[in-house]
Design goal:
CATH superfamily: STAS domain
Number of domains: 1
Distance between the termini: 25 Å
Shape: globular
CATH topology: Transcription Regulator spoIIAA
Helix content: 25-40%
Strand order of the largest sheet: 1-2-3-4-5-6
Structural class: alpha/beta
Number of helices: 5
């Protein structure tokens, strides 16, 4: 497991072939972008990766609704990493589910979907 700053961890589950990204505390657009850039620079995403699960259950978005397009743009600008992959977003807070839903509408070259449980997210990634 790799720790990023104080609020993000990555863990690759080799039995599932899924990269998990765990978020803690308040999360901003910059946290999302900088943590992915760290993952790119440090080769955290293995070649055998089948998809991504972003777990926000222990965090809270500090993101304006109008900023959701920046997330989609980041994924679109990095299709060499995210292209043709599924990105599952887990959150159990009604207020925070809005951001992943808005991002989902802008999916292009990758597929994202919000979930409230890891089991549902895993099943979706592997289907």
């Amino acid at each position: 497991m790799n720790l990023i700053k104080h609020n993000i961890k990555f863990k690759f589950d080799s039995s599932l072939g899924i990269l998990f990204k765990y978020h803690y505390g308040l999360i901003t657009i910059e946290d999302i972008k900088s943590s992915w850039l760290y993952a790119f620079e440090n080769n955290i995403i293995p070649k055998e990766n089948k998809g991504f699960i972003l777990d926000f259950r222990n965090s809270k978005f500090n993101i304006k609704l109008s900023e959701h397009a920046e997330i989609a743009d980041f994924y679109k600008n990095n299709l060499d990493v995210f292209g043709n992959f599924k990105i599952a977003i887990i959150t159990d807070k009604p207020k925070d589910i809005v951001v992943p839903i808005l991002v989902q509408y802008l999916d292009d070259g990758y597929t994202s979907c919000p979930f409230s449980t890891p089991e549902a997210a895993i099943n979706w990634i592997l289907s």
